[in-house]
Amino acid sequence: MKFIIFVFFFCSSIRAEIIKNNATELKRISFSFNDVCKYMGHYETPIIDPWGPGVLDCMGTKINLNEFCLKKEKGLELPNEKLSLTRGVNDPISKTVFCEKASSLILSYKCQKKDATDICISAGHGCNKLNQIFAIEMEISRSSLLDQEEGKILNCYFSSKNDDLISKFEK
Length: 171
Hints:
This protein has helices at 2-15, 33-39, 65-74, 123-134, 164-170; strands spanning 18-24, 27-32, 48-50, 55-58, 61-64, 84-91, 96-102, 104-110, 138-148, 151-160. The strands form 3 sheets. A 4-stranded antiparallel β-sheet has the order 1-8-10-9, covered by helices on one side. Strands 2-7-6 form a 3-stranded antiparallel β-sheet. Strands 3-4-5 form a 3-stranded antiparallel β-sheet. The protein has 5 helices and 10 strands, in the order αββαβββαβββαββα. It is globular. By secondary structure, the protein is of the alpha+beta class. Helix content is 29%, strand content 39%.
């Protein structure tokens, strides 16, 4: 329960500070709110509400959408899949959950004074935190923390673990 609350507050505070979120070969797989609750074992759910961008409330039970997408993806293993799961996010208007996949992802985060000692303490530390929310099945390929007039900017570059180029360089 504490983890879900942490993810909710972390996601909602980060969401407003992301200034760039560019995915390459983005693929979105959609599920209805009701289907998500049922898949996660909550069959009688007449009231389903989004509880932040990455959490769904199924009649009082909080469902972490990243966990849902990871669980759902394990049952959909596709051969030669070059895309990696980035995140699970809900759209409260259409009452849809999207599991997003991509081959690479670039995130830029504008550091605030309140988080200067936390997420923006170093490029590696900050990108590891963002990796857990926005690029859950990807690996960090590059990171940088830049000082600019308007403050620090954290840049994170994530790539698919399934990328053939990566495996060629590792040999």
